[in-house]
Structure prediction request, 283 residues.
Amino acid sequence: MRWGTVQVQGQVSAAIWVHERIVTMSALNAQAGCGFPETLEEIIVRGDAPRIRAWIDAQGDLYRRVGVSSDGVRLRAPLSRPERIAGIGLNYRAHAADLAESPPEEPATFMKPISTLIGPDETIRLPVASDRTTAEAEVALVFGRGARDVAAEDWKQVIFGLVPVLDMTAEDILRRNPRFLTRAKGFDTFFSMGPWIVTPDEWPDLEDVRIETVVDGTVAASNTLDAMTYGLAELVQFITAGCTLAPTAVLTTGTPGAAVIRPGMVAEARVAAIGTLKNPVGH
Prediction:
């Protein structure tokens, strides 16, 4: 399943991508008399996604009558207020080498404020405090259940899906002092997510999934998930060790490489078989 949040004729609603059609929960509620939650956060918290998809599939061609094409639909960030945005740094061995860093002895973590969050096609605003901002393509995990002390072999049981993200960093601020990490990554518009969260039933072979940081159509960095120092199972085990993450929490997993962005450019996160996220860059 592919879940997101869209805006159609001014109305914002959770939506599911079904057979090349976008079916919003607001349309189902209005046209079919359903009582489904209309925010993706509530759908995830209640565990309603499989039930909703099964109900749609059981209605025959209802999706054709209720669903719409992507024309005239504005894709929003799938989640507007995730429980948290946690990040993993220097998780690709090649990227760490590019920065003359050694892979950390355990996953390097950081947090980003909710105020950094934007969605597809929204503008990344470069802060006046920085002369060198970079964008990093990543794939993020969205938690579907409350999770604490999750064993590595059980990691998929607590994950709702995967989603492409762009993580921005004011690199010049960070280089002045590594203790400035929170500020360097915490400016408004410094975290983009979308367009769709892809649930495990549609995942490809994850080890072969390629992630690319792209600027103005040129690939600046590229690698596959199997090149990470710490894999997805290890990251879930690590981040939940003695720490409770609630449904809708987002965990980024590291980037194959960053690219400097400037006003007028377009940054992309391309995640094979999962999706492509694009954002213009402005002041």
In short: Residues 96-100 have pLDDT under 50 and may be disordered. The chain is about 20% helix and 35% strand.
